[in-house]
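Obj: model holo form, ligand = PMV.
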Amino acid sequence: SGPPVYRSTTTAPVNIAVVKYWGKRDPKLNLATNPSLSVTLSQDDLRTLTTASCSAKFPKEDSLTLNGEPSDISGARTQACLRELRALRAKLEEADSSLPKLSELPLRIVTENNFPTAAGLASSAAGFAALVRAIADLYRLPNNPTELSVIARQGSGSACRSLFGGYVAWRDGTQEDGLDSKAVEVAPASHWPEMRALILVASAAKKGVSSTSGMQQTVATSGLFKQRVAEVVPKHMATIEEAIAKKDFASFAEVTMRDSNSFHATCADTYPPIFYMNDTSRAAVRAVEQINEKAGKTIAAYTFDAGPNAVIYFLEESAAAIVGTFYKVLSATEGWKDEAKSLSSEIELEE
Ligand code: PMV
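Output (holo structure tokens):
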């Protein structure tokens, strides 16, 4: 007995961008310099599970437990998410005085990833998406995924895309308040259910340069970045959206690889340069080139985020060729650790 405990549990999937978000026009609100597009992975493979509860019984301070360890929530990004969600709940309570005043209760958030948090596998995206959705559910907020994406974006930019399954665009928007900087579904996973992703973990070590400081340095010092934003990304967005609509894998793959190359080129163009890819990553690039040459057409695409791990996109029909070839080529390459290999898995898409 005593005061009630209100509770809600949800999961959110990992997403891997094929047109990359890289650069903030507003670092406080996480407003991007360019639109981006991602594919959401299946929750059977990589996901965050989050339970949000609130009660007058709890200690007064909000708390967060991540994979069993107490975690700091005093950061501005997490605080922004909590503040916005509480404000939306408070509005509901104002309009309907019969509602319990959950907005005034301390929150307890318990979150778990079913993959190594430090492996550089976009854990912040799934993490903030799950946090926002769990609290929105707890508060019975009527907001749709696109509206929630505006809040999740403030936790981590890429998190806004994890509110949807399938093929998701982050429209960067033009408003200063960021209310038009949000995620939208381009196509559900069922539109192109043959899409697969293979994740190759080159290093499970935490990345050297955080995405926030890498972006800041790129915006401040790279000349190439200006061309990427003005010319390269708009072309890539248009081409890949058309490729998805037509289920044209060769076109999807070419944009994916070109955009990853373009993003890493702007990193190398900063002063001092930033290198996220390493020799092991480059071996994966060559393996994809060999696979495509041997097939006589483009059946595999690589992409790299702010770290050395490769994500390989392909269609189910090519699974044997791709997974087999990777194992052969990379088992002979130093740097692909055994524990990393066992982490590699064939990932299906999230509906
Ligand atoms: O959301 P952040 O701040 O972790 O940045 C993500 C940046 C990339 O993963 C490199 C690209 C992307 O669009 O996800």
